[in-house]
């Protein structure tokens, strides 16, 4: 009989890979650091490969470790999906879900129908706010779950979807040739605003903010109409009036990760059902562009 990978060992390995720490992993999986180290060793014996190395930069996955991480995440997801699919009890009750304001329209159009079809007995309250505000509201007990933009310290969160952030300019005007650069900037406590300012600072370009708004759609319109350039999620670039600025000038390789976070005590089966609804909503909205 061919060897079979132990899901418990895989879960520990994936957690180490995500956190980059044995100590933090031990807290998450409720084991000692020694036990975590032993589990990784057992998994290396099962696979016949060295999976990770420790150095002054922390824990680094080997090439074999990177490969196993891809398959391991898929296997754990499939395992949870199987458990959820075989669950015989209908999910009922009330649930408060936070949605980022800039994705509210798509989720009203695509997420709510999918949720109603999948979990008709669940009474859901949707709250729209900024990602960082949603994090605070969940911590304060005002939300059960929320979709939020990933921060630098959110490697253990469940990624629901990703999209590229693109430096965009109007097709008809080469605004990037102007000095200072006319920029449309997000006016709120937002990771996209932070990334935009960091890139402008890194490249040393002189710039002036000519348009500001707390609504991302407004920034996209400002670019389309030839007022400014801006760093935008690719989902907002849906026509031939905008183009990507060359990477030699401003980097367009940044990725926005949207993650699901939940309060302690939320049933994992409920979380899994909601993740599937979110992902289906994203696919439906993308196919409509």
TrEMBL record:
One Pfam short name: LysR_substrate
Key words of the record: DNA-binding, Transcription, Transcription regulation
Classification via SUPFAM superfamilies: Periplasmic binding protein-like II, Winged helix' DNA-binding domain
Keyword Transcription regulation included in the entry's annotation: yes
Residues of the HTH lysR-type domain: 5-62
InterPro entries: LTTR (IPR050176), LysR_HTH_N (IPR000847), LysR_subst-bd (IPR005119), WH-like_DNA-bd_sf (IPR036388), WH_DNA-bd_sf (IPR036390)
Source organism superkingdom: Bacteria
GO molecular function: DNA binding; DNA-binding transcription factor activity
Signal peptide: none
Entry's family note: Belongs to the LysR transcriptional regulatory family.
Name by which UniProt lists this protein: LysR family transcriptional regulator
Biological source species: Oceanospirillum sediminis
